[in-house]
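Ticket #4471: structure output looks truncated?

Reporter: J.K.
Steps to reproduce: submitted the chain below (115 residues) through the standard prediction queue, then opened the result file.
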Amino acid sequence: MINKISFYQSSNGKVPVKEYLKSLESIQVAKIRNILRLLEEFGFSKPYVDTRKIKGKKYNGLYEIKIGYSRILYFLYLNNECILLHGFTKKTNKSPRRELDTTLKRMKLYKGILD
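Returned output as attached by the reporter:
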């Protein structure tokens, strides 16, 4: 169960997932916000939320939420807080390594600040 959904904020004050949402059409933003609301209310156990663990030892602890072609990458932190790290539009079958590495770096920065 998720206790809270939070957005990662970089040291320069930018919030990558919110920046990504600004780049999308309003209908896609509405879909994403609805999924996030449902996650906060009901957690990941409901069938209308399409999530998966990112494969590979390197990316251990990273997950993605699928909403159409949009992907929101996150990890679960203390007390099941869901930290949204990165958003992108998937254009190929595989998630680009660059996107995954960016997300991994943000997770490590986040944990480094708090651990």
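Triage note (M.O.): checked the attachment and the full token line is present. The mean pLDDT is 90.
Status: closed, working as intended.
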